[in-house]
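Here's a chain:
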Amino acid sequence: MIDLSTLNENQQEAVLWDEGPLLVLAGPGSGKTRVLTTRIARILEQSAGQHFRILALTFTNKAAAEMRGRVEQLVPSEFARVRLTTFHSYAAELLQQHGNHLSFRPDFQILSNDADREALLDDVLGVLSKDLTYSLPDHFKAAQLLPAITRLLEQCIPPDQAEVLLEQRNVDNAIPLARVYAAYREALRRTNSLDFPSLIAESLDLLGKYPFLVKHIRKVYKHILIDEFQDTNHSQYRILSHIAQPDPSTLFVVADDDQIIYQWNGASPKRIEALRKDFGVSELQLPENYRCPSQVIELANALIEKNMNRSAGKKPLQAVKPGASGNVVRVFHFNSLNEEVEWIANEISQKSKEELAICAVLARTKKLLDLIGEKLEEVGVPVYYAARKNEFKSAPMRMLHSILRLVNQSEDKQALARLSKAFYELEGISIELAPVLSRASADGIDLLRSWLEEVRLRDALEARTRQLLETDIKPLLNSLNYRVFIEKLFNWADACQADSRPDENAFNEFEEEREVWAILYTEITKKFEGEDVSLHQFLHELDLTSKTPPKPPEAIPCFTIHASKGMEFGHVYLMGLVEDQLPSWAAVKKGDNSLEMQEERRNCFVAITRAQESLTMTYSSEVFGWRKQPSRFLSEMEIEL
């Protein structure tokens, strides 16, 4: 029996709720993850032996992995009945299982970086330019058009409606742009490829065109839970609307309208209002904050109450953590930004090893973080940035990833080019693409087998490399046993690393990337507990996940506020609290009551509520050569300057 005695009254009510769809307004540090995972575990425990499943959707792989671990710990015997994943990963699963209705095979490739997307768009433009009955503007280039194509995909605009919509919006070259958009989507289907925005767009198309699939989903997944609902964009909300209807009685949504900071990505306070209207949800609040000292909570409440578009009746945060003594909240003013970053770096550098481990520096922009990062490294403090990394950088990892992609997508020319480049860096043997492509066409074989034939002709091939590419690769080619080949390639790479290589940088980042690979492999395997993860499933999950290495224990996180969301740190240094930085220049220009200013206020709210023990806020009179006024948010927090 799952123990609920450690939950507070509101948390228990949320976990035990059974009176229809529920919206839980959960403030920062309120234990929402614990509520979600305990609710899932309780449902699984009470329905042991039944066959229905639970679908829980969130926005980051990190959050999904953390929740999977908690649920498994609570109900290990029933864990296989829950699918806890991200919106994009769930969309990929839908298309793996049912994408044939839209002409996608289950082994589709996910284009995870803009270089691959631009290459496909280049091909599209090349084909369209040969149509003599129709001409494209001379300035139409892939790199410049891709953002517009992305926006249309993110809005899930059907290709046959794009022209009318673009003309209504008075977009220049609306007709040719609509034609390119339609051709790009067709090229994705023709090449059996999808990119991040089209995963959502095609899934929505699938659910809209085939209602029987929605019925099947609702039969399989009796309960649907959504984490961080405030981050959903319009397209994701439409997917939820499909799969939660016609009976949304078991819908359970956790959100906080005070933490909507992704308006640039389509998030909006309107989404919560739509949820209330469309689903008739009951509401429950979790105002208790177990993370921050009471002094920080007082600032957060004073700040966020200035926003006008909050949920009616939203309760202020309640500090539960015992009061801390000393300078829990500090504010420092400096003459210049250089003085500001120097002071922060010096103070952090003087902390003990234990204190360093729980420090973090937050700022509104990466430009500010670059300055403090450089200064921290100057004083001997290593720095960790949270930048997303879509592709592996080291030659062995690129070689492995390319081989797996070529096995999955036999005609992937981009993967072939990457494989040849990585192989040259490791072995100094240049494999030209032209003869590989010619052999594949003449002999009717796939690109990887043709490439292997070309490699075998090289006398300079070392014995261990010949062993890898002639013998060790056979299980992968013959039965898609990628697990065995991964281990063989890593062993080969270790042996190669011991020798001098043609390119001395070939193994840069290899050790940390192999660690990332091991972490991702474990998480993906755990996600599909009880199932044999196919190669295309593995690659899909891999392509949807950042390859960013974990933070070294001794490094100080330097995160933008957006990157810090969902995290907590012992000692938070929030820098750059001046007008035009936090709030941003765009928000200042729009005015104090604008939607942009309200989002900037939420940014500041999110930043200060990351602090578990202390909060230090800094600002300067001169930033990047310009005179600046202190952020209005400081006075709104009732801080005397």
